[in-house]
Amino acid sequence: MAKHVLTLYNSLSRTEEPFKPLKKGKVSLYSCGPTVYNQAHLGNLRTYLFNDVLKRSLQYLGYTVTQVMNMTDVDDKTIKASQAQGIPLRALTRKYEDLFLADLTALNILHPTHITRATEYIPEMITLIETLIKKKYAYKAQDGIYFSIAKSKNYGKLANLDKQKKSQERIKGDEYDKQHAHDFALWKFHMPEDGDVVWPAAFGPGRPGWHIECSAMSMKLLGTSFDIHTGAIDLLFPHHTNEIAQSEAATGKKFVHYWLHGGFLTMKEGKMSKSLGNIHTLPELITQGYLPAHYRYLCLQTHYRSSLQFSFENLEAAKQAYERVKRKIIELKATTHKGADKTKDYQTQFTSTLQNDINIPAALQVFLKTLDDISFNSQKRLALLEHFDEVLGLEVKNMKEEKVTVPKAVQALVQAREEARATKQWAEADILRTRIKEAGFILTDTSQGPKVEKI
Ligand SMILES: [Zn+2]
To answer: Ligand 1 center to residue 435 CA distance, Å?
Structure first.
């Protein structure tokens, strides 16, 4: 049998590479987290689902994973949002942090080992900036401390930037007195519009730039060099490019060995983004009768590096597919069938899909094939599916027939609709049917009377 190894597509080399962790059997993983100033949209959540299946796959393959994820709770956007809402920065960011964590839980995303808030690592950021000033990689300008990309070796290797070409570009309107158009702020000096958001520092009071936050927190918890850094593909430049430049300038060591980037969630008209005004959120899907598991299932069907086009037709298809799986699992749980033990065979297939750059769509196919193999002993089959589910996170163990209890308020609406129908008030009956649907129930008229089911 061929000896399989895990290969991962490394954005740094733009190739699939065999994965060799720094410490045998252990993986240090940093995932760029959210900027907590609004409700995450489905595109954001796709990235966290990618982080989740990556982490779960590594664990399935026998690694112990330490995952750090940050919460950006201070930057231009969070400050602006807190002022617009008239609440302190901390109150705003805690609110959206809680909503974000609720989304993760709903999607059955394993929480990271450490969640780090930027505002709790300011001393580490200041120390890192002081080192960069001392090593002459950073300089003081009128409005802050900047990193000088001209001093940085290999700047832009990750994003494949042509340094010469980039150096000739000028960015209008955001110039200040930077020495170079792509020099970026490590620290922004306090401005009146920042209000009370300010920290003291020897080089001048102010607040950190976004890029330095991730470098300081990742190196504090995972060390100056670590295994894997993840994020959505749009973070590759400038965010990750700048993280590499400043971290490697400060330590003289290779910062991250494997850079993994997740593809976009797109809509017909392009990327799902706040600026395009085409965003959908998880709570919105739930009010439309979908479960978080349906969205998870939709995302599992596409490889993490490919872009995924979202539409309600695709989501509906994923819902149907998930519900089919659920029905079959429930049936399997009630079956005792003494067939062959094919555990090893399917396990080998499943493992090799994960080893192939975390090919979850292929892993899902192995899962479905196993589920449908009626010549495979039912008990052993179920045990194996539960094992596969440690990666897929479909909650196979919890799948059971659900007894629907119809709340009293909905029962009253059903009763009122029956009365409206009896007196031929059809418009009224239709309104009541809509209200029943809004409450999360679907009503069908049968020969035995109205049947109420949960959406
Ligand atoms: Zn980051």
So the answer is: 44
Kindly give the distance from the C-alpha atom of residue 438 to the centroid of ligand 1, in angstroms, as a whole number: 39
The CA 231 to ligand 1 mean position distance, Å, reads 7
Q: pLDDT tens digits for 239-266?
A: 999 999 999 999 999 999 999 999 999 9
Confidence of residue 169 (pLDDT cuts 50, 70, 90): very low
- Sequence ranges of the domains in the chain: 7-262, 277-398, 408-454
pTM over 0.85: yes
Residue 242 vs residues 174, 210, 231, 343, 407: alpha-carbon distances, Å: 17, 10, 14, 46, 54
- By CB atoms closer than 10 A (0-12, 13-18, 19+), residue 78 is buried
Domain 7-262 is classified in which CATH homologous superfamily? HUPs (3.40.50.620)
How many residues are listed for the chain in this entry?
455
Give the Cβ contact number of residue 404 at 10 Å: 8
For residue 165, the CA-to-ligand 1 centroid distance in Å is 25
Give the Å distance between the CA of 130 and the centre of ligand 1.
20
Question: How close is the Cα of 158 to the center of ligand 1, in Å?
Answer: 14
Distance from residue 179's CA to the centre of ligand 1 (Å): 24
Query: Ligand 1 centroid vs 239 CA: distance in angstroms?
Result: 7
pLDDT digits (tens, 9 = 90+) for 114-168: 999 999 999 999 999 999 999 999 999 999 999 999 888 788 888 887 644 454 4
